[in-house]
Amino acid sequence: MTTNTTESTTGEPTKICCLGAGYVGGPTMAMIAHQCPDIDVHVVDLNPERIAAWNSEELPVYEPGLYDIVKQARGRNLRFTTDVPAAIREANMCFISVNTPTKTFGIGAGRAANLEFVEKCARTIAENSDTDKVVVEKSTLPVRTAESVKRILSSASSTVKFDVLSNPEFLAEGTAIDDLLKPDRILIGGDSSAAIEKLADVYKHWVPDEKIIRTNLWSSELSKLTANAFLAQRVSSINAISALCEATGADVDEVAAAIGTDSRIGPKFLKASVGFGGSCFQKDILNLVYLCEHFGLPEVAQYWEQVVKMNDYQKYRFTTRIVKKMFNTVSSKKIAIWGFAFKKDTNDTRESAAIYVCRDLLEERAKLTIFDPQVSLEQIRKDLEYLIAGPNGELTDAERHLLNDNVTVAKSAEEAAYGAHAIALMTEWDEFKDCDFQSIYKSMMKPAFVFDGRNLLDNQMLADIGFDIESIGKP
Ligand code: UDX
Ligand code: UDX
Question: Is the pTM of this model over 0.85?
Answer without folding.
Answer: yes
